[in-house]
Specification:
The protein is of the alpha/beta class. Helix content is 39%, strand content 17%. It contains ten helices and ten strands. The strands form two sheets. The protein has an eight-stranded mixed sheet with strand order 1-4-5-6-7-8-9-10. The protein has a two-stranded antiparallel ribbon with strand order 2-3. Helix 1 packs parallel to helix 2, helix 6 packs parallel to helix 7 and helix 9 runs antiparallel to helix 10. It is globular and about 55 Å long.
């Protein structure tokens, strides 16, 4: 098994075999992200990928879960992805799950027939970095798509029957009224997109990124912990779809919040309200406990 550069995966893929199909991210322009700056985007040759699968079969024996790295494997040609999925299911008798990050532009580059073919071939779960439902903010952070395009990408994935996990960023708008606008617009988009999972993380400035430089110069003001929780509360309150698994336990978050909307909505909001009203920093994760 061979890897090049920084390798990341969702925390829910902790026990997955990581298969590096692409290097880097096909977009790689988001102002808040410093993950793939160490390598330009490229697609690995299919023979190399198949050789890695054979190596993994020899080392692991079997695998129930596989995650396709790096940041946007769905940018690969569809026929190539189908070959990879075929090889994976042939190699691992117990394989039940194959996941990957998907970029909105790459997703929109696939026809519905292609998306359905990938789902039928065994690509089961996809992770889409929605970040925000606010169209202006998507432009500011250079996500590369408008809010209607982001929504369509998510809706296409749901229509193709993928298990969609949408990821959003608390604090992305900075201080002031834009914070609540971001929260409300994001809740509206999630209601329209209807993913199965919503993963909320908190903006953490990464050195050498445009957002980090904006924070240094004062052009961007980070929310304090309680303002961040107020944003989470607005999102939770505005989400009406049922069921939706809300995953707010990422290490970047000040307060771990987890549950299923709508059954656990009142409990989650009550917890957030209680911590906000207490203004007690001891009830939050310290900066030393938080991370990406």
């Amino acid at each position: 098994m061979r890897y090049e550069g920084t390798i990341i995966r969702p925390f829910s893929e902790a026990d997955s075999y990581l298969l590096q199909c692409t290097l880097g991210c096909s977009h790689n322009q988001c102002t808040f992200c410093g993950t793939y700056k160490d390598k330009p985007f490229r697609i690995r040759p299919l023979p190399e990928i198949k050789e890695d699968i054979r190596m993994a079969r020899h080392c692991l024996g079997d695998a129930r879960k596989v995650f396709l790295c790096d940041g946007d494997a769905i940018a690969m040609p569809t026929d190539m992805l189908l070959e990879i999925l075929t090889a994976l299911y042939a190699a691992f008798a117990s394989l039940r799950h194959v996941g990957t990050y998907v970029g909105p532009k790459s997703t929109l580059g696939k026809s519905m027939a292609e998306l359905r073919a990938l789902r039928a071939a065994g690509l089961t779960k996809v992770y889409l970095g929605v970040e925000t439902g606010d169209d202006r903010l998507l432009g500011e952070v250079r996500k590369g798509v408008t809010a209607p395009q982001m929504l369509l990408a998510g809706q296409n994935l749901v229509a193709a029957d993928f298990n969609l996990s949408a990821m959003v960023l608390l604090g992305l708008a900075g201080r002031g009224e834009p914070s609540q606008m971001h929260a409300r617009a994001t809740a509206e988009m999630i209601n329209a997109m209807r993913p199965r999972y919503l993963a909320a993380m908190t903006v953490t400035p990464v050195p050498h990124t445009p957002l980090f430089r904006q924070v240094e110069t004062g052009a961007f003001e980070l929310l304090d912990p309680f303002e961040t929780l107020a944003e989470m509360r607005t999102m939770l309150d505005g989400i009406t779809i049922d069921p939706l698994k809300f995953v707010g336990v990422h290490a970047s978050n000040y307060l771990p919040v987890n549950g299923t909307l709508q059954p656990d909505k009142a409990r989650m909001i009550s917890l957030v309200d209680d911590v906000i009203h207490s203004r007690d920093p001891r009830r939050l994760r310290s900066d030393a406990q938080r991370g990406l």
